[in-house]
Structure formats: structure tokens, C-alpha cells
User: Which sequence fits this backbone?
């Protein structure tokens, strides 16, 4: 069984005769990711709650979310919109925290984005200067308005959706600031990010305010937590991949790699993933680990997705592709030589 | 894509000073970009630049020794209104003033632009970059290629104009003689500056957090084997440019033919004159005055060479991109072959 699995996995031949992108290929990789993260959780001995729901073929992201939830990651049950944050916002907040004025312990700013029915997507932010002391807080509202106007000119679809503050706790001043923002936007979101790393983590949380207390008497404000998700555009994801390289070697800087190196790197990553999956399978087979039905199902799908191609078909496909590419390379070299010649002749 | 007017830095903000040991080649040897700038550029294109429109923005940062550090950026609105010109300058001033309040570097060090399949070598870009570089010695233009990035890896390049090209632009002498004097070929128009990405420690922590919490799978676009779409479009653009180039060449040929014809005519005229004068002398009459030949035969206008240079540069760029792409794809195909061969 393991021999068959190994051979089938290694025969990843993602060519398709129509010469279009093979949609199956991306799903192959997605399965690998899902399996790996599941397996990693196993090693951590987090109790798994198997969702026995049938697995919808097209809705991969949903499955991933369900898996992650069952891995026990922080997902509080909430009533309220889901907050989807783009990484730009977080990087911006971090950067403005680093540039804060002397004596300021935290920075605040406005969040911009779009509001859907059940979710709020935060796509941009800018920091607002403010002064905070023991008993009073002053926010430069003119500045906030101005900046919002400027930003609106570039992206007219973004609206104020809330505000952010660095730091771990919500203070009384936050209530006042929140009140100001609720004048600007309906139901503003309050985002906190613990940049001082008080608890060892960054603790990115979002809150919605709700009135509480007895009517007529003292009315207070309570901040109810919301679930935070991260949303990436495709290109953002690829950009983040590159930026992640700096975190492995924090004191050095990293250049952008050249083309073939990138392919090599990507292939290396896939190799690592395959190795992890294989060790897991071997463990299960030798009894070190209990077999997990869901993972088994994913593996079956993974193996079934690999298209079976006869050797001659593959040869012809490969050769025609290589011929195309070689011809294009030849043509572009020819063109470059031509324009170089042209230059020389004109100068004569 | 309209050119943007150059805006000098605000009078209160000092201009980025040239590095103390200005080296022979250029004052900027390396560009250091913060992750935040990269993310902002990506986001700007994604949201506002769908289709083949270009998005532009301003880079802010500072100069340290021979490195140009880019620490922040802000986008420019699209040119849709008629009174865009005036708004632009004002927008920029306002933005920089506001950013100063929150301690963000407000020194203008360049601008960025997105490109469609690598077609950015144009007159507009040249003019813009020239005015920037004229005012601020170290400025660069960052070209972000979103389509190439979507294929797997971030494509970001930084360009400056070579000193030779700066000279020519200053004198506005785009004729053939001028270019010949300066010995400029299309390879000497832009110089590329290497880019390095750097993140502060706080951002690194953020990256670790995101990695943990992120539910979006890694993108494996890089190993995608389909190539025909991208190649088709690139080749289409290349063909268009080559057509432009051939038109230009035809123009130049007709010009040189006209010129030589004119020379011949001049010679003939002078000879006839001399003959006539000789005849008249033999007959004893006064010779006809030597007319100013050059006034009679006005030399034809030589066609401007700048456009040709730009087209050649653009073609070169396309060819480079195509070659990079094909080399990557060849590698992937050989990998697939190896895997298949191993199986059978």
C-alpha cells in the first residue's frame, strides 16, 4: 500500500492537453497543506473534534476553516460581524507604533474599509496624533478628517469602519474615543494590537461596543469581542511569502531572487511537504500513530487527482511545449540582435 | 498616462542631501525597502488598478550613505477629473504635511508605478523620472509588475536614468548627432538598482503571528505549468512594438534617401553654375554670382531619435521578460519530465 501511495504521489504530472492551467494542480497542493496542518496538530496532542460532515468538493476554504476551528484555535462564539483584516493594516499599525512620539505609550488611528452584510473588511488605516494623560485625552479630529478626505480621493470605495489602538487593555479613554468614532461611522469596530508584547503574543483583537446597564440610571459601555480573520489577495500572499524570509534571518536583509532560484525554492518546499506526509503515513502503517479517517480520505483524493498519462502522450506534450518555448527564446534573441544592429547602423 | 508635474519638496523640509562620498557611477548603489511599502503597493494595484491601467504613487524615505531607504509610500489618485493638475500638487503637499505630524519620513525619494506585462518604457516615464532626478539626485522609479507577481514571485525593479541620458534630457537635444555624441544605446538608458527588503523586528514578530493564524493556504502558483496565455500576450505586445520600430526605420530610411538626393542636386547645381561661369568667362561676360547654395536647398528635418531609442529599449525589455519566463518554464518542464520518468 505504501509503495503504491509513494509512487502515485511522486508521479505529479500536471500537464493537461488543453495547455491551460490545470485547476487540479492547485487542489493537490491545497490538500497537502490541509493534511500537514492536521498532522502537526496531532503531534501537539490537541484534542481533535472531528467534523463528520461530508466534504464539499469545491469549497476548500470552508473545510480549512472547519479544520482550524476543530484544532482548538482561538475562536470565540460571537454575535456580530466577522472582521477580516489585510496584512497591510497590521504592518501599518506596527510601523506607526515604532514612530510614536516620545512619551506616548500607545498610538491610535482610523481604520478604513468596506462593510458587508456579515463582515467588515479592513483594508487601510492611518494613524492620528493624539495626547493622552491621566485624566484627559485629546485627539486631533481635524487631522483625521483631512486624512480621510485625501484617502477617499484615491480609493473612493473605502469608508471609516472603526479605529485601532495599540496596547493590551481597553482604557476609559478608549470609550471616549470610541464615542467620537461612532459619530463618524455606524457601529465602529475597535481593534487592539499588543505591540508591546505584554503577554508574549501580539493578541490582535476586535471589539464592538454595546450599551449596558440599567436604563435611566448609569449607562456603561461594554466591548464585546468579535472574531478576527485574515484576508489576503493572491498577490498579497505572494508578497508576504517574500517578506517572511526576513523573519528567519532578522538581522540580515534579503534580496529578491532570480527566476530559476524561485522555481528551485518552490520545488524544495513541495518536497518538504511530501516528506512530512510520507513520514506520517509510515508512522500510521507501523502503528506508531492511530489512523485518522479524514486524513485518509484526503489522501485518497490527493492520489486520485493525479492524472494518469501514458508515456507517449506525455512525451509528445512535453516535446511540443519545449519546442514552443525554445522557439520563443530564439525569436526574442533574434529581435534583440536586430535592434542592437539597428543602433549601430544608425550611429555610423 | 499623463505626465505628472514635478513638485519641489515643501520649503520647510530640506531636500535629501547627496551622500557625502558621491561615487563615480551614481549616488545610489542599493535600495532598501520596508515590507510595509511592498504591501501598500500590492494593495493599491489590487484595489484601484484592475485592467491595463497603471497606478502611481510617491515613495518616501531617506538616504543613508549609498543606500536609499524607502520607508513609506502613498498612492496617487487616478486622473479622471479635468482639474487634476492643480489637485495633484495640493494633494501631495497635504499628504506630506499630514504624514509629518505622525513622524513618518516626509522626504520625497521617488515614485512607483505598476506596469502591464512590462511595458513601461515610454516618453511619459522618461519625463517624469527626469524631472524627479533633476530635483532630487537619488530618486528612483519602482516598477511593480502585478501580473508577474501573480505568477508566483514578487516582481519589483528599481530604475534610474543614467548620467548620460540625464545630460541629453537637460539639453533637450534629441537629434541623431546629439545622441551619437553621447554614444547612447538603448541599453544605457536606464540602470537597474538592486533591491533589498528589510523589516523591523516588530514586523518580524507580526509575520510569525500571521503565519500561525493564517488560514489561507500557501500559493503554489510558481509551479504552474501553463504558459500559453502569458506568452501570447507578451508576444502580442512585442509584435506591436516591432511594428512601431519598423515604421520608424522606414521614416529614417526615407529621410536619409532624401538627404542624399538633395546632396546630389546640390552638386549638380554647383557644377552647372561653374560650367556656366566658365562659359561666360570664355565669352567675356561677367560671371554670375555664386548664390548661396544652402539657402536654396533646405536640408530635410532629421527625424527625432528619441522615440526610436525608447522603442528599442521597450523591445529589449519585452525580450528580457520573455526569456526569463521561458527559462523558468523550461526548468519546470524538465522537472515534470524527471518525475514522470521516475515513475515509468
Assistant:
Amino acid at each position: 500500500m505504501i509503495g503504491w501511495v509513494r509512487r502515485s504521489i511522486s508521479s505529479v504530472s500536471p500537464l493537461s492537453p488543453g495547455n491551460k492551467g490545470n485547476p487540479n494542480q492547485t487542489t493537490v497542493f491545497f490538500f497537502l497543506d490541509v493534511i500537514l496542518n492536521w498532522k502537526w496538530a496531532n503531534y501537539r496532542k490537541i484534542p481533535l473534534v472531528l467534523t463528520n460532515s461530508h466534504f464539499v468538493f469545491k469549497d476548500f476554504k470552508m473545510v480549512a476553516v472547519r479544520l482550524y476551528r476543530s484544532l482548538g484555535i482561538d475562536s470565540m462564539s460571537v454575535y456580530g460581524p466577522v472582521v477580516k483584516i489585510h496584512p497591510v493594516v497590521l504592518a501599518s499599525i506596527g510601523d506607526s507604533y515604532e514612530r510614536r512620539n516620545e512619551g506616548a505609550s500607545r498610538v491610535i488611528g482610523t481604520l478604513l474599509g468596506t462593510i458587508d452584510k456579515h463582515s467588515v473588511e479592513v483594508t487601510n488605516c492611518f494613524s492620528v496624533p493624539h495626547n493622552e494623560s491621566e485624566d484627559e485625552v485629546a485627539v486631533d479630529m481635524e487631522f483625521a478628517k483631512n486624512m480621510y478626505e485625501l484617502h477617499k480621493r484615491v480609493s473612493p470605495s473605502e469608508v471609516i469602519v472603526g479605529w485601532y489602538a495599540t496596547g493590551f487593555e481597553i482604557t476609559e479613554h478608549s470609550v471616549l474615543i470610541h464615542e467620537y468614532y461612532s459619530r463618524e461611522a455606524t457601529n465602529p469596530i475597535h481593534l487592539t494590537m499588543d505591540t508591546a508584547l505584554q503577554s508574549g503574543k501580539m493578541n490582535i483583537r476586535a471589539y464592538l461596543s454595546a450599551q449596558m446597564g440599567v436604563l435611566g440610571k448609569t449607562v456603561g459601555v461594554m466591548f464585546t469581542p468579535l472574531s478576527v480573520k485574515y484576508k489576503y489577495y493572491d498577490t498579497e500572499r505572494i508578497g508576504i511569502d517574500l517578506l517572511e524570509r526576513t523573519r528567519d534571518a532578522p538581522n540580515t536583509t534579503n534580496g529578491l531572487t532570480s527566476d530559476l532560484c524561485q522555481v528551485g525554492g518552490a520545488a524544495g518546499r513541495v518536497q518538504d511537504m511530501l516528506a512530512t506526509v510520507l513520514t506520517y503515513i509510515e508512522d500510521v502503517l507501523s502503528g506508531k500513530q492511530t489512523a485518522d479517517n479524514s486524513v485518509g480520505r484526503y489522501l485518497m483524493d490527493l492520489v486520485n487527482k493525479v492524472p494518469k498519462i501514458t508515456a507517449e502522450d506525455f512525451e509528445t506534450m512535453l516535446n511540443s511545449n519545449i519546442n514552443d518555448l525554445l522557439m520563443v527564446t530564439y525569436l526574442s534573441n533574434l529581435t534583440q540582435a536586430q535592434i542592437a544592429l539597428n543602433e549601430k547602423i544608425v550611429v555610423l | 498616462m499623463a505626465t505628472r508635474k514635478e513638485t519641489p519638496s515643501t520649503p520647510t523640509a530640506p531636500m535629501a542631501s547627496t551622500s557625502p562620498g558621491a561615487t563615480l557611477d551614481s549616488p545610489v548603489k542599493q535600495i532598501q525597502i520596508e515590507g510595509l511599502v511592498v504591501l501598500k503597493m500590492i494593495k493599491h494595484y489590487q484595489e484601484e488598478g484592475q485592467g491595463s491601467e497603471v497606478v502611481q504613487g510617491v515613495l518616501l524615505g531617506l538616504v543613508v550613505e549609498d543606500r536609499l531607504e524607502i520607508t513609506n509610500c502613498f498612492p496617487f489618485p487616478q486622473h479622471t477629473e479635468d482639474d487634476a493638475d492643480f489637485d495633484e500638487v495640493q494633494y501631495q503637499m497635504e499628504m506630506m504635511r499630514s504624514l509629518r505630524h505622525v513622524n513618518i519620513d516626509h522626504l520625497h525619494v521617488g515614485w512607483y508605478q505598476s506596469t502591464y506585462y512590462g511595458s513601461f518604457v515610454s516618453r511619459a516615464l522618461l519625463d517624469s523620472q527626469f524631472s524627479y532626478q533633476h530635483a532630487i539626485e537619488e530618486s528612483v522609479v519602482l516598477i511593480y509588475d502585478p501580473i508577474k507577481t501573480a505568477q508566483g514571485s514578487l516582481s519589483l525593479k528599481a530604475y534610474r536614468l543614467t548620467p548620460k541620458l540625464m545630460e541629453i534630457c537637460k539639453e533637450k537635444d534629441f537629434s541623431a548627432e546629439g545622441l551619437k555624441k553621447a554614444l547612447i544605446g538603448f541599453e544605457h538608458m536606464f540602470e537597474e538598482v538592486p533591491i533589498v527588503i528589510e523589516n523591523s523586528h516588530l514586523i518580524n514578530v507580526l509575520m510569525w503571528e500571521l503565519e500561525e493564524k493564517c488560514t489561507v493556504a500557501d500559493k503554489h502558483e510558481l509551479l504552474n505549468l501553463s504558459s500559453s496565455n502569458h506568452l501570447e500576450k507578451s508576444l502580442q505586445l512585442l509584435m506591436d512594438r516591432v511594428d512601431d520600430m519598423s515604421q520608424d526605420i522606414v521614416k529614417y530610411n526615407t529621410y536619409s534617401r532624401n538627404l542624399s538626393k538633395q546632396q546630389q542636386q546640390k552638386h549638380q547645381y554647383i557644377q552647372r553654375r561653374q560650367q556656366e561661369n566658365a562659359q561666360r568667362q570664355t565669352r567675356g561676360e561677367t560671371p554670375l554670382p555664386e548664390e548661396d547654395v544652402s539657402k536654396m536647398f533646405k536640408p530635410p528635418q532629421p527625424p527625432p531619435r528619441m522615440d526610436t531609442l525608447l522603442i528599442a529599449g521597450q523591445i529589449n525589455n519585452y525580450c528580457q521578460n520573455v526569456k526569463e519566463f521561458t527559462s523558468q518554464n523550461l526548468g519546470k518542464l524538465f522537472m515534470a519530465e524527471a518525475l514522470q520518468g521516475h515513475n515509468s
The longest strand of chain A covers residues 119-128. Chain A touches chain B through 114 residues (CB under 8 Å).
